[in-house]
Amino acid sequence: MGTVPERLDLTVENLLAVDFKAISHTRVYALDILKCVGIGFDMGEKRSNHTVYNVNYHFVWCPKYRHTILDSIEDSLEAIFRDVCDEYGYEILSLHISPDHVHLFLSAHP
Question: How far is Cα 56 from Cα 46, in angstroms, rounded to an integer?
Fold first, then answer.
């Protein structure tokens, strides 16, 4: 196998020549490797008249002292999140309501 390069140029030739076990201390971004190899995947870009964008937000909300109070209002809380997102044109990518916290991952326009 190849040696550890000072700078990791992600071309197919360099990628195949790198001994990844030897560069465990180096940051290798999986996204760059996948792009280099040519594995295609959808990045979720959205388009408007003059922009191409992909704006995602991850919100985590928990009640004071992380009390477990969200079980009783889970359905209404989800409905409120969905209504607000529909009103503003946001797309809910993931919504998880636990008894003591909420994870909301959404996509929004700029």
Answer: 11
